[in-house]
Amino acid sequence: MPSLGELERAVMEVLWAASGPQTAREVQEALAERDLATTTVLTVLGRLERKQLVTRTRDGRAHHYQPVASREDHVAELMRDALDAAPDRGAALARFLGSIPPDERAALRDLLG
């Protein structure tokens, strides 16, 4: 799973929160507080497309971008990658479980059955 820079994460958050595909201008407007140029947003979207995190479709003159996977799928993949990098997967899981609040541990127990 490719790592994301801070601006790439911000763009992905906009795309994940959107109800459908977004143009670069719509992403730029959603990130208005950052005062980004359209070319900057297009560059980031292009990087995300090369990392296969977004798809681009053409609609007339505009391109629309949407995430390939949900935020939850992305986070799950990052977690799998982190576990794969650990020499002792069991120890890493134990540390993780020890670091989360009791209510989240209970939720995880419920998910596991």
From TrEMBL:
Keywords: DNA-binding, Transcription, Transcription regulation. Pfam families: Penicillinase_R. GO terms for molecular function: DNA binding. One of its GO terms (biological process) is negative regulation of DNA-templated transcription. It comes from the Bacteria. Signal peptide: none annotated. Belongs to the BlaI transcriptional regulatory family. This is Transcriptional repressor, CopY family. It comes from Pseudonocardia dioxanivorans (strain ATCC 55486 / DSM 44775 / JCM 13855 / CB1190). The lineage of its organism: Bacteria, Bacillati, Actinomycetota, Actinomycetes, Pseudonocardiales.
